Every structure is written in structure tokens, then in C-alpha cells.
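Input chain follows. Return C-alpha cells only.
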Amino acid sequence: MTGKVTAVDLETAAATWSIDVPREPRGVVVREDGAAAYVTHLTSAALSRVELRGAPQARPVALPPSPLRTPRGKALSASLGYAAALSPDGRRLFVARHALGALGEQAWFGAATVDVLLTGDDQPLAPRRREGAPAWTAPALAELPFDDVELEVPNTELAPFVQPRAAGGSAAHAHSSRSGAATGGSSRSSPSRRGIAAPPGSSPAS
């Protein structure tokens, strides 16, 4: 199953190109240099990078969710990747989502996370959890009749939000000419005169 990213001329409302990407695409963020756009997905950890100079092409970009809360030796998936945002200097891409299986006291099948991609080389900012990283055993787990290192949780609190969402009805626009982009039938951003819009009916996380 695939989704699509489609560029739309904002003056004529005509589609100029369309490209296949993995299923459930949601947020689109265009790099400040206009070279590429990043697409988040509702049902996977990887992002899609769509090249915008020349013929559009899409490729996956790995962004491990909550690596410091990942059980050692494992790779997690992610969900609820509704939106992303660039830092003011364009060097970091922030992606809010739910890391499925991330460790934490009272974690609900994982934990909310904001993962950061360095746009200079499309590498994640946070390293993977290493052997001997600071951890503690949650009181609720200490009474279990077996010893499992995966029950140890990072010695930090969980994120102060749950189930990430895009801000309801909000949109952010940037400079340049006259094209826009849509993903999976929902308006998102653009390779030039662009914007990022929340899915219809969504609301900010509480």
C-alpha cells in the first residue's frame, strides 16, 4: 500500500506532479534551500525525503524513535507522526510522534517523543542507547519474580504530552513562488510558496 505527494500550482489549482511514497503520509516540511521536502508517516518511524530539484524522487530517511528509551539491541517503530517542524536555521527537523515500545515508568505501550533529524546529512541527533546507560527499575517492576534488563527504564521522566497531534486548524507559510503540495488527500506544504496544515478535525495535544 502506498500514499502520494502531489505538487499543486496555487494560482491555477492544477496538479504539476505526483509521486508515490509509503503509506499514510501526513506532514510535509520543505527545506529552506528548496532542495527537498521531508514527509512524516502515521504508521512508521522512517521519513520520506522528496527531492525537488529536477524530476521529483522519494527515498526513505531513517529516524529511530526515542533511541535513548529503546531496549538494547532492538529497533522500535513509531505512530502518530502527524507533523514536523524545522528549526529557525533549518539545521534540525523536529518530529513529534509515539515511540512504540519505548521504556518508561507507566509507559503506555511506549512513550511520546520528539525526535530530531540533522538536515545537513539526514542523520538522527540522538544516539542509540548504550550498554551501561543510566537506568533504574520502576517500583511496579521491582516485585516481579524474574530479572530482565529490559524492564529497566531510563532515569528521566516521560515527555509531558501524550499522543502527538498537529495543532488543529493551524498553518505556517513560507516564502517563494506559487506551488503547494498535498499528501494523501490532506493539504500540507509546498516546494515554494508553501504551508503546513493540520489534518482536518485534529486538535492540539493536552
